[in-house]
Specification:
Elements: H1 3-35, E1 40-45, E2 48-50, E3 53-56, E4 61-66, E5 75-78, E6 83-85, E7 94-98, E8 103-109, E9 116-121
Length: 122
């Protein structure tokens, strides 16, 4: 291999490595961002939300779990800022809801009107 070809080979190798390093850095930061997610779980049992208050980050997802063996639940929220409706939740079912707006919200159960959950979204 002559010196000109060798120098061209080294130049491409350095550029190739720099590109690989940049792509690796991006992929690593995307993967680490996913690790920062926090799982928020709310149990519906005994005609109560457990816990009855929670604080999450904007964009956070709450998993509503019906932990009752024989009761149907139906979590919902209806405000001008944000709304959702899980529909009827059979015992053992899980439904995820993402809170996209900041604020303080009171989630209710359509089946059990005394059930209330306060969600603070930062």
């Amino acid at each position: 291999m002559n010196i000109t070809r060798f120098m061209a080979y080294q130049k491409h190798a350095v550029i190739g490595f720099a590109g690989f390093a940049a792509i690796s850095a991006v992929l690593t930061s995307v993967a680490l961002a996913g690790l920062g997610s926090v799982a928020y779980t709310i149990s519906q049992k005994g005609r109560t939300f457990q816990p009855s208050e929670t604080r999450i980050q904007q964009g956070g997802t709450i998993t509503f779990i019906n932990d009752d063996g024989d009761l149907v639940h139906h979590a919902y929220l209806d405000t001008n800022e944000f709304s959702f409706d899980t529909g009827d939740q059979a015992p053992g079912s899980r439904i995820d809801t993402t809170f996209v707006k900041k604020g303080t919200f009171v989630v209710m159960c359509a089946v059990h009107p005394k059930m209330k959950l306060t969600v603070r979204v930062d």
